[in-house]
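4.2 Preliminary Data

To establish feasibility before requesting continued support, the project team ran the inverse folding procedure on a target of 232 residues. The structure was first converted into the token representation described in Section 3, and no sequence information of any kind was made available to the design step. The complete token record follows.
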């Protein structure tokens, strides 16, 4: 190639080469995966936000006499332990649906020793003596937190009575109720109450056939206490 030809061809070649490089660069950059999308190999940056909802409240439900004895008995063979258990199952289900942590406990459950919860209610039914009707609730006579437990008792009287239509039968509260063994087992800070949900004879229709209502009454009492909406 002569000197003259080189001077004429080389600029053209350089221009062509430049175009090719430009095209290649365009293809390269536009066909690359977006650098912004994180590859699966990248560790995502953890972002911690404070939980907007507090930890769920815990409720203990003692199914009276469960795994221990039959409790009171009617002439037809109906046992208190069975009534209590059927209602306890309903109470636990309702509380869980409302977002509470719930423990279903037996009468002498090993978990009761030092048990910590926001509320504990032991469910019992009264004797099968005919001619008496009503419910009652009680806390420990030597309560560590009398004001708190009195509020739970008051809530149960108010709400259980309202939902079930049953009247209180307070004058039949026995020293047994106030000295109930569970009160001495749970942690002193756990508000614990026993409720006799009705008499097995005259309140049989409610206790045996409207157990959903009974469970709703118990849950309404517990919620009233936990929500703190019920001043004494
Ligand atoms: Zn009982």
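Position-by-position output of the design step:
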């Amino acid at each position: 190639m002569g000197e003259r030809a080189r001077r004429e061809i080389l600029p053209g070649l350089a221009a062509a080469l430049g175009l090719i490089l430009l095209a290649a660069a365009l293809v390269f950059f536009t066909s690359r995966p977006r650098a912004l999308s994180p590859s699966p190999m990248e560790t995502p940056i953890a972002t911690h936000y404070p939980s907007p909802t507090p930890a769920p409240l815990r409720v203990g439900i003692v199914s009276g006499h469960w795994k221990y004895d039959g409790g009171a008995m009617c002439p037809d063979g109906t046992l208190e332990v069975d009534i209590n258990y059927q209602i306890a199952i309903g109470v636990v289900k309702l509380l869980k649906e409302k977002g509470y942590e719930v423990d279903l406990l037996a009468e002498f459950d090993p978990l009761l020793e030092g048990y910590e919860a926001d509320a504990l209610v032991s469910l019992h039914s009264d004797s099968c003596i005919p001619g008496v009707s009503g419910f009652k609730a009680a806390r420990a006579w030597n309560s560590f937190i009398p004001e708190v437990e009195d509020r739970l008792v008051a809530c149960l009287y108010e709400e259980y009575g309202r939902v079930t239509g049953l009247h209180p039968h307070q004058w039949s509260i026995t020293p047994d109720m106030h000295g109930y063994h569970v009160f001495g087992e749970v942690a002193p800070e756990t508000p614990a109450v026993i409720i006799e949900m009705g008499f097995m004879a005259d309140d049989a229709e409610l206790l045996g056939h409207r157990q959903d209502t009974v469970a709703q009454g118990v849950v309404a009492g517990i919620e009233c206490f936990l929500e703190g909406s019920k001043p004494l």
